[in-house]
Amino acid sequence: MEKIEHTTVATNGINMHIASIGTGPEILFLHGFPELWYSWRHQLLSLSSLGYRCIAPDLRGYGDTDAPKNYREYTVFHILGDLVGLIDSLGIDKVFLVGHDWGAMVAWYFCLLRPDRVKALVNMSVVFQPRNPHKSFVQISRDLFGDDYYICRFQEPGEVEEDFAQMDTARIIRKFLTSRNPKPPCIPKEVGFRGLPDNPNLPSWLSEKDINYYAGKFNQTGFTGGLNYYRCLDLNWELMAAWTGLQIKVPVKFIVGDLDITYNMPEAQDYISKGGLKKYVPFLQEVAIMEGVAHFLNQEKPEEVSSHIYDFIKKFN
Q1: Which of 113, 164, 209, 234 is most buried when burial is the number of CB atoms within 10 A of its CB?
Q2: Is 47 in contact with 29 (CB distance < 8 Å)?
Q3: Which residues form the AB hydrolase-1 domain (predicted)?
Q4: Active site residue 234
């Protein structure tokens, strides 16, 4: 870990912290919620040893990267502006892109809007969902699961922050990272996130040191930056109207754990296996379903995930 370099890059009006290591073709790693560059620690070390320059930023609102206060400054256009500015400042023309969770959402948009900057994509957990011209993703979620569904609960500024403030930050991180319940998370207000089950024992792939690293950064920044991505979902839907129906045309590998909440959503498995995803991602070349693996697969099965990434991207060097 001490070999990983930490620098700050000015991009798109903010200062962005990046962790990087290695030389060779560049891989840009995009983390999710509630995570940091640190979620890619294993992949940075593994893939840099195989001849790649690995770059993992703290995305806008996270860790040591700036966090604008207005939630409307967290649209996918802002995030992509940060990332294109980042690779421009590093003198990089095209990257291999690797995303997970919210990072996967950003990666899909990156490939949709700037395919000229992407060699190939390895995406995890979150499938590409074409824009519904009639109804936003938040409204679809509310119709399916009700107001207590976590994405709906995240919409009101300050509400979830108040809930989180009643818990120790390390406990919040532990709840998220160790959850293995594949059912859609619905959290009634009267119960709150503190009502989610605690895992008394950390899994073998997660240490107290890891938990404390996340907790230390979120103690400094709070969770608002990350929550603002959810609060821009409706705004993204409005702004993306002109791209309705557009396909993603870069080479793609998709990886998901069979215990992941996303994989157990209504119709998700059929969408992946019966051609739905391929319809909108025509250059989808590989799909890997990891057995007995939950949402945070890049940390739970780091060597396996690193191998999946390497085996795919080496074809495009």
Answers
A1: 164
A2: no
A3: 27-133
A4: no
* Overall pTM surpassing 0.85 (yes/no): yes
Positive or negative torsion for Cα 246, 264, 167, 207: negative
What pLDDT sits at residue 160? 95
Domain containing 305 — which CATH number?
3.40.50.1820
- Mean pLDDT (10-residue bins), the chain, 317 residues: 93 98 98 98 98 98 98 98 98 98 98 98 98 97 95 95 95 94 90 84 96 98 98 98 97 98 96 97 98 98 98 95
**Residue 295 a catalytic site member:** yes
Q: Which of the following is catalytic: 17, 31, 42, 295?
A: 295
Q: Which residue range is the domain that position 307 belongs to?
A: 5-314
Of the residues 101, 163, 210, 260, only one is catalytic, namely 101
Let me know if 116 is a catalytic residue.
no
